[in-house]
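Field: COMPLEX_INPUT
Field: COMPONENT_COUNT = three
Field: RESIDUE_TOTAL = 924
Field: MODE = joint
Values follow.
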Amino acid sequence: MSVPPVYGIVLAAVLFVIGLAGVLIRRNLVFTVISVEIMLNAGGLAFITGGSRWAAADGQAMFLFILAVAATEAAIGLALILQLHRRQGTVDGDSARKMKG
Amino acid sequence: MTIAFILAGTLSVIATLFAITRLNAVHALLYLIGALLALAVTFYTLGATFASALEVMVYAGAIVVLLLFVVMILNLGGHTAPAERALLSPRIWVGPAILVVLVAVELGFLLAGGIPAGTQSSYVGPHAVSMQVFGPYLLAVEAVSFLLLAGVIGAFHLGRKHFETRAGSESPEPAAAPREKEGVS
Amino acid sequence: MQQLLWLIPLFPVAGFVVLTLIGRRSPIGLIATIGTGTVGLSAVVALVTGFTFAGMPAGAGQAMTDSLGSWVSVPGLSSMFTLRLDPLSDLMVLVITVVAFFIHLYSTAYIRGHGDYHRYFSYLNLFVGSMLILVLADNFLLLFIGWEGVGLCSYLLIGFWYEDSANGRAAIKAFLVTRIADVAMLIGLFLILVTFGTLDIQTVMAKASTTFKVGAPVIAAIAVLLLIGAIGKSAQIPFQIWLPDAMAGPTPVSALIHAATMVTAGVYLIARTHVLYVLAPGVQMAVAIIGLATLLLGGLSALVQHDIKRILAYSTVSQIGYMFLGLGVGAWSASMFHFLTHAFFKALLFLAAGVLIHSLNNEQDIFRMGGMRKAEPAIFWVFLIGAAALTGIPLVTSGFYSKEAILQAAWDFPHVGHLLWIGAAIGVFLTGYYIFRGFFHVFLGEQHTQVSHKPSRIFYPSLFFLAIGAVLIGFLKTPEDLGNISVVSNFLNPVLPPESTVQPAIGTEVVLQTIASLLALAGVGVAYLVYKRSLKTATAARAAVATHGADYELTGIQNFLFHGLGFDWIATNLFVRPFWWFAGVLKRDWVGGIYDAVGWLSVKFNRLLSLTQSGLIRWYLFGIGVGVLAMLGLVVLI
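Field: COMPLEX_OUTPUT
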């Protein structure tokens, strides 16, 4: 078990950046949620790597909490998407801009 | 182990890339599952077996399934693919691409600045994790439970069909067909 | 008797105060009595002191002074309220009070029903008081008070009928133009104070002749500055533009202020400070040249005017030019003599014109009058006397004698005297032409406007008195070959330097007088011929003029003369327009604009910032991404 932690961090960074790109590019809100999940995962990976390096369980504990947060956020986000779909007839994020100006 | 890590990592990156660039939402989710499973493998190679199990069970098994449910409800599938293509014009992803590249560059700088040396990755088992979670992080656990409660209530409330206003109950009209997508400048 | 001196200006000033306080609710009779009475009392006191004064032994320094105490007393300047009566001021005081009395009498009937009765008389009284202070002042500061006072009253009275804004504008024009000149005069007074250490006139004159040589630059500078003040008040080039427009005021005001008295204040000033001008011959030459130029300008402009008051206004400008010419060539007492005769015949002409205007229901255009000889014969005769005096009809009119005195002195002036004489002689011809052109158009021919009401009987005493004066006063000073009476010169001798001691040959005198007389008569004759010709030709056009408007077509030259030889145009475009432009620039409130800019900037910034609220979720996410970038950048860089 000698994975250099740096590999993990690098992977986490790459995944995070990809997730960020996804969030900004996609208009469909479902894809936005997907991208956010990716980002959260990347953060979790970073924690895990840290915990692995220092042989501490804190990393996995943090990952647990991240999981809980991700679940909650996905649930509420999806509820909102459903609501938006009911009102606007679309899941296009750009269709909800009455808060302009 | 390192090789496994590298393989799984590469797999997860590729899967993620596919996930965010698919036009069909279901395809994207399937790729996401693949990415998450690959990530679980990386967790395992790092010695975090408990986390890898959780990743598969909760993340890939619950959250993504939830997403899948919603996609099915909204019927985002093959027939919306052309519309999705229209949304992915170069005009839209140029700006974010630049931003993302910059962020990546900065992260690279940070990483290049120095990571504590060390090649060890140790195995941390569930026992140790649970000792931590129910020990020093107990309050955090309770707070997370509040969070989950709030999430449940929020999801329940926000997902309702009928909303009551002062004038009387008002229910949003069910969408007959997807409206025209407004052009985004 | 000295102690009564201060009564002379006091009565009119008291009249002003009383009328201002109680005039609004007083009956007309009371106002008229107070207004005219105060001036009358002043005249009485003036006559009494004048007789006493004449009885005093003659000699240099003959004067009465009356000091009312100290006014300003600080280190470097001490000024007293001192009034001084010497031959020069005595002459002025007598003219002012007597002529003003008759004009006040005339006004009691003229202004009735034509405006605020009490306001008119209070202003007029203030004017007489200020003018008397001006001529009686023994120090420059008091003189300046009177100077400004008459300027103020001129403004108030020109704009008497303020309901018409054109009158207000004319008043402002008069005030501003004289104000500019007054600034120069004030600087001159400063210079006097600095040079001589005092503002007492007699002290200054004495010191000047002992301390400075002829041609001293300081004296020349003072003389120039005082000259500018004088030509502003007396409407000489280039300040003459205000006088024709000042005819917007009531006719008695024009008679008193803008013919007989205020406009001669400049002449008085130069005569009073003659020591300075003797010491600065260059400036004195300038006085003569300004006088000559102005008399020609006035004459030329008057040739084509059709408003009778404007003809008389330009005539005043021209005649004061004669006075300046006289001062410039050293004929001090001749100029004062001309002032004396001019006061009578010009006031007479104005008052006669006033009667015409009054009875023809405010008609002032000579082409719309006509036939007044039959309608108002008395006015015909007094106007004829006045016009003859103005022209200088030989031997029988006062104007002849006073103009001859000036012309003779001009001829005798070294080097350029002949040229000056020729210019003045041309002026005589022009005078004859323009005044009789007006006379013929008004009094002969057929009547174009009907008399709406007969003139009041109160008008006549003033007219008769002035007419008699216009004839007889001339005999107070006659040239050598015609009796050599020199009452005026002798009277003024103690104060003013004697005129040139060069006595020309009698023959030259006679020849010059003959030529001038012929020119005057020629002017009358040409006016008659032109008048007759204009009757024959274009009678239809005349009829059109009579019914529609007075602006008949003027040729280019005539138009140029009509508008005062372009001086108004120069003043407007060179001074007034740039000033208005500048005022318009300032009106935009640049200082306030700076503060407004703060608010404007804030609003603009707000607009800018609100652009970032596009309402798009992706946009906000992008913002978060940029924030992340920034924070990471901070960490990376720092």
